[in-house]
Amino acid sequence: MTEETKEIPIRTAEAPAAAAPEGEAGESKKGAKKAAAKAKKEAEKAAKAAEREKAAQVSSAAGGEDVAKENYGDSCYPSKISGLSMSLGDLAKEHVGKPIEFHGFLQTSRKQGAKMVFLELRAPGGGIGANVQDIQAIAAENTEGEDVVSRTMIKWIGGISLESAVEVQAIVKEPLEPVKSVSIGGFELHIQRIYLVASAPIQLAVSHEASSNNEAAIPGPTVGFATLLDNPAMRFRGTMFNSIAKVRNVVDFTFRSYMEENGFVLFYPPAMIGAASEGGANVFKIKYFETDAFLAQSPQFYKQMKIAGGQRRVYCVSPVFRAENANTSRHMTEFIGLDMEMQIEKDYSEVLLMLQGFLLRLFNLLPQKCRAEIDYIRKFYPSEEFLLPEPGKELILSFAEGQKLLREEGPEEFRNVSDDDDMSTPQEKALGALIKEKFKTDFYVLDKFPTSARPFYAYTDPANPNVTNAYDFFMRGQEILSGGQRFHKPEELEASMRNKGVDPNAPGLKEYVDVFRSVGCPKHGGGGIGLDRIVAWYLNLPNVQMVADFPRMPNRLFP
Amino acid sequence: MTEETKEIPIRTAEAPAAAAPEGEAGESKKGAKKAAAKAKKEAEKAAKAAEREKAAQVSSAAGGEDVAKENYGDSCYPSKISGLSMSLGDLAKEHVGKPIEFHGFLQTSRKQGAKMVFLELRAPGGGIGANVQDIQAIAAENTEGEDVVSRTMIKWIGGISLESAVEVQAIVKEPLEPVKSVSIGGFELHIQRIYLVASAPIQLAVSHEASSNNEAAIPGPTVGFATLLDNPAMRFRGTMFNSIAKVRNVVDFTFRSYMEENGFVLFYPPAMIGAASEGGANVFKIKYFETDAFLAQSPQFYKQMKIAGGQRRVYCVSPVFRAENANTSRHMTEFIGLDMEMQIEKDYSEVLLMLQGFLLRLFNLLPQKCRAEIDYIRKFYPSEEFLLPEPGKELILSFAEGQKLLREEGPEEFRNVSDDDDMSTPQEKALGALIKEKFKTDFYVLDKFPTSARPFYAYTDPANPNVTNAYDFFMRGQEILSGGQRFHKPEELEASMRNKGVDPNAPGLKEYVDVFRSVGCPKHGGGGIGLDRIVAWYLNLPNVQMVADFPRMPNRLFP
User: Fold this and answer.
1) What is the pLDDT of residues A88-113, one digit of tens each?
2) Is the distance from CB of B194 to CB of B100 less than 8 angstroms?
3) Residue in B197, B301, B490 nearest the CB of A523
4) What is the mean pLDDT of residues B503-529?
5) Are residues A372 and A326 in the same domain?
6) In this structure, how many other beta carbons lie within 10 angstroms of the beta carbon of residue A322?
7) Rounded to the nearest 5°, which phi and psi values hold at B139?
8) A269 and A166, same structural domain?
9) 20 to 30 Å CA-CA from B448: which of A378, B77, B288, B297?
10) pLDDT tops 70 at residue A480
11) Strand, coil or helix: what is B127?
12) Whether residues A261 and A145 fall in one domain
């Protein structure tokens, strides 16, 4: 398959239309859509024509040969541009009149007759998120001096397809009025040289976001999520997905810094394990030389080994794997877990409050650090501001209190829910709505889950053998975190296993219990959070797959 | 299997001997080994006796019942201790005379007659590395006041097995002379209350490090590496492995902070991929519902997709998987890769210098941040100080220059090495020795590898089609990093694939090439480093498995 026959039928939000062919100069954005159907053919023609004309056409300044021919064309080694190497965001008055280098992407292009072309250039992001760095650039006919710009050169520039990678040498100038359509509107670039690093295919006027540049929504065709996932590079260039990526990064780094500040030590649990230690359901099996291995469903046993090994507090940020054959909005087969485990000195509430402290800090930081991104995303996926409890009034209900609330004030179908049965997802959502109404918070904890609803390692409440020192955390009625105290004495752990019908001598489990037999292990507890879920539920996105760069689902392993 | 029948036949370096049974008080360290064989039986007897005697024995202060019985025993809920909650490292004069809480491990124990027992208590690490926090504690008979300590209590304390988890309430005092055997020697703890959180099995006098507490090596039996790997909690408690873990953490965080400072954005490549994209050799296969998936051998394609997607610079710290059935000192089937990829503005040397900058910073930081750890590890694994080039004189040889050096000055068997063939490991080591002698550096780069020795994605040097813009980095003659510029134009990439006999339409590869067809991708390059290898080669350890917490080898998937 060659480049010419491959077309990606989407364009980024930042690219309002295909390059306007010659003769349609000055065309408005609204008009651009009409031109789009013709754009591919015309631009291809124009590009080929430019090639032919480069040698043949008589430039305005010389006879027989294009005097500007060294100033454009394919990028080569060594590069022909030179100037100040700087970030667009650092442009200042002092740079006016000086040449700079730009390495980035052609975002929009608009020819104005034969003598001028207006471009929008976008810098590659380090700056992920809504705050893209783009700037207007102009190539205007110039027949004098060293930096000649010929009509042929202008025609060639007009033929560059949007989203191509380009390198540019240009003089910084101040526009008469700030340019509104770009983020760096106080300056513009007057092109001296421009080279094509790699050409994009022709972009069609189909948006993969429903609006552009914070203006009102553009009506018209959009693309499906599967198409976006099939085209990762195009998706990553969109403002929407960059904004989500920024929020995700802030969640990730807030977790890491909170953990470090509190004396937690980073470690790496293994992905491949020797036995399906949590019962064998939903585990991926690997062919491991002459035997089988499995992909870890949780780093929990390994966190506990670190605590038994004398660490006071540990955390990890690692992929975990769940072989659930469910194409739902909540599940991926691989996701990044934020996990922590800590020694308990007196009471497991030390763990619960540590986790709560992280989430409170996060929910307070996000609106500050990601204001522009959250606002941008809300244009397409509206969400109410995330309601937090007043400081000191954080909500921790027992599981039994939660069920009581559902029984007494919840929907009809939940009038008979029992304190001994786990909650279903619909129950959780109904409880979330009740709590939001009653306590004015989107964030709360359900504590003391019944023993019947927790795995064998959940520590029994010393004051009540029917419940555990284990909890779930909720955002907008959806669970995001599960954790609790674990058994630290081998004999108690083994008894709990037998009570649950689990064989303590099964492969993987024996090695686990042996850890507690090999030393005296401190009391400890922890919890794990799905990184994508926090982001998805915070932003009220329709699914968790939108948050991951390369989501894995039962029906998706590419790219 | 119950606790009583399970014995772990090793002890940590910090625990010089099993608890001395009553009547052998004051026994020397040398004598301890003789006592070890008897220790288990005696200590079990002692523990049971203590239980019986708790009720029956007449304490020195009261008739019929042990008046101290509330001050020791099993830990319970709520905890019976109270005092200042603080790190041992923060102890200061102002705390003298006050009670503190301690939650940690019993490290050594020595009874002195019936009226006194000396303990060493070790705090759990946040403070990983050689700088363990341990302190001397004393329980002495006290018949007056509230905080009575009875002889029965002292006997019970003497029976606690080493490496048990304990909680202690104690008054801070200043010893007459600093205690030399512990790190917090300026204070000691006078025990008021002590409870057993979880009991360790009896420890035998077999060291898993060859020396203890920075003193001269203890002669005597040691344990094999497999035994250590089978007992992770015990291994993690040793100073050696904590010191290695500290060095590893510093490498990891130096990479992360260097990347962040230079504008790189963290992302997560997937572990599960849809096709064995690098040819199918050495790839683990997963049963993925009705189809097959594979474990990623490298995040490279995904880094490139992020660059094509408009990111300027990205990095990741993620597990990668290699199904190499080789039990060597250099290989693990799963390891953590430090990976980066960046847009090239003018020349691929930008990437090479970025990576070199990281390693130079790291090698300058390590001796400062890990002095104690490096010195500790060298007692067992001697290594020379890592030689760095003078600033500004970093060594970058071309591959051809390296081969020439080998031909002209290397060992006899390398007199005929060719510029077109890849180097073998013995060649690399010989070259490392030559370079060290000639240029006085353990760190250098080999650049411009021949096209024949690099994969299809390696960018051809525009000035010489026989070599690539690709390089390896070396430490002490061993490769730690591989990287280079990659093709960014789909037609060039496809041509390179066909030249190498690789089908550009094969599953996984087609999706990869399509990424470059879908946009105009900037010039870019990157590199990847094995986290464990840097640590192992820097410390001159015998293998990389010693560096990982849970190493994975063809014959090891547990724990």
Assistant:
1) 999 999 999 999 999 999 999 999 99
2) no
3) B197
4) 95
5) yes
6) 18
7) -115, 120
8) no
9) B297
10) yes
11) coil
12) no
Q: Is B533 a known active-site residue? A: yes
Q: Are A54 and A69 in contact (CB under 8 A)?
A: yes
Q: What's the pTM?
A: 0.88
In the residue annotation, B517 being an active-site residue is answered as no
Options A95, A256, A312, A330, the catalytic residue: A330
What whole-number percentage of chain A has pLDDT above 90?
Answer: 77
**Residue B208 bears catalytic tag:** no
User: Which among A183, A209, A236 is the end of a domain?
Assistant: A236
* Given the residues B324, B334, B394, B401, the one annotated as active site: B324
Residues β-bridged to residue B211: B217
Structure tokens at A424: 């279903």
Among left, alpha and beta (phi > 0; psi -120 to 50; other), residue A453 is alpha
Task: Note whether B177 and B304 are same-domain residues.
Answer: no
The SS3 assignment for A415 reads coil
Q: Exposure of A263 by Cβ count < 10 A (0-12 exposed, 13-18 middle, 19+ buried)?
A: middle
Residue A549 lies in a domain: no
Which whole number is the average pLDDT over B263-272?
97
Can you give the CATH number for the domain in which B37 is found?
2.40.50.140
Find the mean pLDDT for residues A36-53. Answer: 55
Residue of A398, A524, A392 whose CA lies nearest to A457: A524
- Measured in angstroms, the CA of A548 and the nearest CA of chain B are apart by 8
Of A53, A324, A334, A394, the active-site residue reads A324
Chain A residues lying within 8 Å of B245, measured CB to CB: 267
Provide the number of structural domains found in chain B. Answer: 2
DSSP H/E element including A425? helix A425-439
Residue A475 in any domain: the answer is yes
Which CATH number is A328's domain given?
3.30.930.10
Q: What is the pLDDT of residues A334-368, one digit of tens each?
A: 999 999 999 999 999 999 999 999 999 999 999 99
CB-based contacts of A156, cutoff 8 Å, min separation 6: A47, A50, A54, A72, A73
Sequential DSSP letters for A306-323: HHHTTBSEEEEEEEEE--
Phi first, then psi: give them for residue B44, nearest 5 degrees.
Answer: -65, -45
Q: What range does the domain containing B8 cover? A: 3-207
